[in-house]
Automatic annotation (TrEMBL):
GO terms for biological process: proteolysis. InterPro entries: Leucine_aapep/pepB, Macro_dom-like, Peptidase_M17_C, Peptidase_M17_N_1. SUPFAM superfamilies: Zn-dependent exopeptidases. PROSITE patterns: CYTOSOL_AP. Belongs to the peptidase M17 family. Keywords: Aminopeptidase, Hydrolase, Manganese, Protease. It comes from the Bacteria. GO terms for cellular component: cytoplasm. Residues 310-317 form the Cytosol aminopeptidase domain. This is Leucyl aminopeptidase. GO terms for molecular function: manganese ion binding; metalloaminopeptidase activity.
């Protein structure tokens, strides 16, 4: 397993290969300052300063070579601008020539992530180490990378090995590591207290029984923050069964749970001054004689009754009960993550989580920090005009819209019914998956929106960070 703290290290003047950053605007001027040998080498390799293009430059002896690589903007480095190098350079130590890497430290580590748990033969991995004089940035960057790696690992793990008990075990590990309190509700208590979570998961095998997992941490007099995650370990669609193509990636349907567990661990490890309540609704949406049915009416923890229009709209059901429980603690902020709707992916594609929020300032913070951290999110409207699409003849609301239109919005409006009035709330409808690889971002499980949410929490609650900024 990679120790990410080995991949970025303090720069103490140790021997290292130089990385020269250029862009299309600066390349010609930079080239004028290179040696005749280097210019000849670049000409011979037909080097062009296109995105991620790099070449090794010969030095005065065999060990003193350097690297030139092209970035989009040499004066404004992105998190991913060095990721291709971190995947392809020889083993060794490197430093940027004439500047510090800043947030590119994250991409350097991210590029060296691998998920090999199920391979009988694995490639030999060689560490590429990046030096930085920004010593204070190392620990926070490593913490964020570990959180992202946790999300990737959990989402990449097959459903047979990542059922509700395994999600609970991960929550238990985190709670124990940080002195938090873990509470798990299942069986008859779940049926009584969280009837929608129970209904969704009751068709699964006993060893994958549904449960509500709660972690509580922090001082009671600190601001209360709730993190809520959808933990559907596998989604067959229930009796409204998915086609084979739609079911193929449904091991990732616990991606919301993975995000909030990673976010909770970040907050606890950093000692964020909050009273944290992390809730994961874990269930498998399976098919058996006991599966819940279209047309059933479920009572929720909040007391609202819900008519089932589609058993494949189960994520909002388990989240509804978990959000109701979160609201009972009167938090000032609730953030939930869920792989909730295909409609969000149709609208925004795989890279952009759909963000819904009932507070403009909160939404603006999350959007801004997403841009700053190169973890973008896109705000969608909580358009109350579509609330009538959730109306039903015999219950308080339906779990599926009466129209194919605005599927992601109606799902968010459903969740909003379970959020207490006056509580700031943000909902991330995230994909938690990359269908194709990009530098630093491998195909497979993905943390999308996690770093944006973490930055927003830090900005709101980390007094030490604000004090440092003021100084």
């Amino acid at each position: 397993m990679i120790d990410y703290s080995d991949l970025i290290q303090p720069d103490k003047g140790q021997e290292a290969h130089a990385i020269h950053l250029v862009d299309k605007q600066s390349y010609d001027e930079w080239l004028k300052g290179r040696s005749a040998r280097e210019r000849a080498h670049l000409a011979a390799t037909l080097y062009k300063p296109d995105a991620f293009a790099h070449v090794i430059l010969p030095g005065d002896d065999a060990e003193r070579w350097s690297v030139v690589t092209a970035v989009a903007d040499a004066d404004n480095l992105s998190a991913w601008c060095l990721a291709k190098l971190a995947q392809s350079l020889p083993e060794g130590r490197y430093r940027l020539e004439g500047r510090q890497p800043g947030k590119a430290l994250f991409g350097w580590m991210s590029a060296q992530y691998h998920f090999d748990a199920y391979r009988t033969k694995t490639e030999t991995r060689v560490p590429r180490v990046l030096l930085t004089a920004e010593v204070g940035a190392i620990a926070p960057m490593v913490a964020e990378m570990r959180a992202v790696a946790l999300v990737r690992d959990l989402v990449n793990t097959p459903a047979a090995d990542m059922g509700p008990p395994r999600i609970e075990a991960e929550a238990e590990r985190i709670a124990k590591a940080h002195g938090a309190t873990l509470t798990v509700t299942k069986g008859e208590a779940l049926q009584q207290d969280y009837p929608m979570i129970h209904a969704v998961g009751r068709a699964a095998a006993k060893h994958h029984a549904p449960r509500l997992i709660e972690i509580v941490w922090g001082k009671e007099d600190h601001p209360r923050v709730a993190l809520v995650g959808k933990g559907i370990s596998f989604d067959s669609g229930g009796l409204d069964i998915k086609p084979a193509a739609g079911m193929r990636l449904m091991k990732k349907d616990m991606g919301g749970a993975a995000h909030v567990l990673a976010l909770a661990e970040l907050a606890m490890a950093a000692g964020l001054p909050i009273r944290l309540h992390c809730l994961v609704a874990a269930a498998e949406n399976a098919i058996s004689a006991d599966a819940f049915r279209p047309g059933d009416v479920l009572k929720s923890r909040k007391g609202l009754t819900v008519e089932i229009g589609n058993t494949d709209a189960e994520g909002r059901l388990v989240l509804g009960d978990a959000l109701a429980r979160a609201g009972e603690g009167t938090p000032e902020l609730i953030i939930d993550f869920a792989t909730l709707t295909g409609a969000a992916r149709v609208a925004l594609g795989p890279d952009l989580p759909a963000l819904y929020a009932n507070d403009d300032a909160l939404a603006a913070e999350l959007m801004a920090f997403g841009t700053e951290r190169d973890d973008p999110v896109w705000r969608m409207p909580l358009w109350e005009g579509y609330a009538d699409l959730l109306e039903t003849d015999i219950a308080d609301l339906g779990n599926a819209g009466s129209s194919a239109f605005a599927g992601s919005i109606t799902a968010a409006l459903f969740l909003k019914r379970f959020v207490p009035e006056g509580t700031d709330w943000a909902h991330f409808d995230t994909f938690a998956w990359r269908p194709s690889a990009k530098p630093g971002r491998p195909k497979g499980g993905a943390a999308l929106g996690l770093r944006a949410a973490w930055a927003a929490l830090q900005a709101r609650y980390d007094r030490r960070g604000r004090n440092r900024a003021a100084d």
